[in-house]
Structures are given as C-alpha cells and as structure tokens.
Amino acid sequence: MKTKILQALRQDSQAYVSGQQLCEQFGVSRTAVWKAIKQLQEAGYEIEAVRNRGYRLLAVPDILSQSEIASQLHTRWLGKNICYFEEVDSTNTAAKRIAEDSGFANTAAKRIAEEGGSADWHGTVVVAEEQTAGKGRRGRFWSSPRGTGLFFSILLKPQIEPGNASMLTLVKGMATVKGIAQVTGLNPQIKWPNDVVLNGKKIVGILTEMSAQVDYVNHIVVGTGINVHQADFPQEIAKTATSLKLELQKAGRNVQLSRAELLGAVLTYFERYYEIYLQTQDLSALQEEYNSMLVNIGKGVRVLDPLGEYEGTALGIDNRGQLLVDRGKEICEVSSGEVSVRGIYGYV
C-alpha cells in the first residue's frame, strides 16, 4: 500500500491527490489510506494534507526501504523482487544464499510476498543499508558504513555459456555510468574492467560471481557498491576514492541525493543493456558505446600479468570485453589480471 501511494503521489509532485481517488484506485478504505500516509510521515516523508484537496508529496528523505525503492522502479522485470536488509554481511553473499539456500530463500520470499513480489528469483535485487563484510575484487574488503552508500546485488539466471558471464561486469559498468549521470549530471567514466571513476578517483566497484556447471550457468550475482554520501574514507583508500557528494561539492552544486532514485536509474539502464547483450551473448552491439565511456582509451596502462608486467596504450575493448593494448609491435588482448591506468590510482 505504501509503495502504491508513493507512486501515485510522485506522478505529479505539484498536484494534490484526493483520499477518495486513492481509495478507488487501490480498492481500500479511507482509514487504510490515512494509516499508510501516517506511516510514511513517521518515516520522514513530508506529505501535505489539505481538506477537500487531498495529499501532496513535498519532500522525500534519503532512505532505503522496500516501499521507497519499489516506488522508484521503472523496469519491466528487473527488481520486481526487492530484498532489503538494514544490515547484511554482503549483498552478493545474501543473493547467493537466496539462490542456493532454500531456508534463507523461503524467509526472503515471505518478506517479498508481503510487497507483492514474484516467486521467480531471476532479476531479484538485494539491497542493504550497511554491509559488515562488503566484498571487493580479489577478496578485498569494500567499506560499507551505514547511510553512506548504495550497496546492491542483482541475481540472474540467464541461459548463456559460462564463458560469457564475465562480460556482465562491463554491462553493469555501463548502466552505472548512465544512471549516475542521469541523477547527478556528473560525468563518470569506466576504468576497465570493474570500476567507475570521477576526476581520477574511484567511486564505484563492481563484483560479478557465478555458480556454474561445465556448460550451464546456475546463477550469476552482479554486485555494486557506489560511494554516495561519504565525506571521508579509511586511510588506505583516502587518496584514491571519492563520493558523489564530494564531487558535487567540488562542482559547486547542491543536489539532494536519493539513493533509491539512483538505484532505480541504474536498474533501468542495466535492464536495457542486459537485454541487448543477451541477443548475441557478447558486447558487439555495445562495444562502441562502452568505449565512449572508457577512461583508459588512448592512455598508457600497465598490465600486471602473472607472466610479467608490461606497458602499452589502451585502444578500447573488443566484442568479448577484452582490453586491447598496443605494445608497439603487437596488440595484446587482456582478459584477466590487474590493469593500472596512467594518472589514476597513483600510477603516473
């Protein structure tokens, strides 16, 4: 009920929506509408109530709740199941538990059913206010303090070859860049393969994990951490990380950030790009757009290959998502390993 009322109030934020209209639209009593409005006000929503005119949404707090997230969704299938946690070890781990642990999945299903969710786990989005064991690439820890960032994972069950799954990290990078740009007006870029940066500093990390057989994908989890409100960072990453809040302040802009709105925007773009990707199971239809977002392109990179480091110039990705590096006498296709980019993360 709260989700539906929020969606109705958001359709035209300048207009009043009468209580009678809400009753007829949702088939409930005036008392039920009044109780839902009261609960929203108690949660921090500023809703004006005027006799004989109705209700109007004046201000929205930056909260992540089942109702707030659902009211910001504009997707057809992605995120129809939202599993929200005040605190969780890792949204990636929680998403994997949903896919693998029937007991955990049943508990999550009960919560989702209360919000009118689906029994189909494909496209489920797990969101947390705080992660106590946030996961970064190669086992690194992702700092996830309460109320500071947007931490979420998407659970997918695609019918694709396991060898094609890693490209979903790049698809997610594109969606995140577009979502951030839409909501904030900033111009983030992708650092291949799994980071998004602003002004040379990391603002987003993406981690894709897969459970598969030799020729069959059981499930894929694509996790994302976006630095939103952080004003400072742990000492070990203070020189290389930034947040949307800090970058907006540097640009002299006072923007009220909504993490739920940002999530809704990123999911809209991911749904779109994911469906394009599925048509070919590669990045042939997205390659040109991806390269236009790539901070590495045309710049010097150092490839930390297990067989030996080397340097070259990044030319962009191929249709498999591999980074093409010009070493002068040859062009190498980089599909794994660490890549440091000249001028980013201290490499100069």
Q: How many individual β-strands? A: 14
**Helix/strand structural class:** alpha+beta
- Shape call: globular
> What portion of residues is helical?
25-40%
Output the helix-strand order.
HHHEEHEHHEEHEEEEHHHEEEEE
Mean pLDDT: 88
Per DSSP, the total helix count is 10
Main sheet attributes: strand count, strand direction, barrel closure: 7 strands, mixed
Terminal Cα span: 54 Å
Strand order of the largest sheet: 3-4-5-9-8-7-6
* Radius of gyration, whole Å: 22 Å
Low-confidence stretches: none
Strand content: 15-25%
Structure report:
The protein is α+β, with helices and mostly antiparallel strands and 348 residues long. The strands form 3 sheets. It has a 7-stranded mixed beta sheet, sandwiched between helices. Helix 2 crosses helix 3 (30-42), helix 5 (91-100) packs across helix 6 (102-113) and helix 7 (167-184) runs antiparallel to helix 9. The chain has helices spanning 2-10, 19-26, 30-42, 66-71, 91-100, 102-113, 167-184, 244-250, 259-280, 287-293, and strands at residues 46-50, 54-59, 82-85, 124-128, 149-156, 189-191, 195-198, 201-212, 217-227, 300-305, 308-317, 323-326, 331-334, 338-341.
Strand and helix layout:
Elements: H1 2-10, H2 19-26, H3 30-42, E1 46-50, E2 54-59, H4 66-71, E3 82-85, H5 91-100, H6 102-113, E4 124-128, E5 149-156, H7 167-184, E6 189-191, E7 195-198, E8 201-212, E9 217-227, H8 244-250, H9 259-280, H10 287-293, E10 300-305, E11 308-317, E12 323-326, E13 331-334, E14 338-341
Parallel strand pairs: 3-4
Antiparallel strand pairs: 1-2, 4-5, 5-9, 6-7, 7-8, 8-9, 10-11, 10-14, 11-12, 12-13
Helix pairs in contact: 2-3, 5-6, 7-9
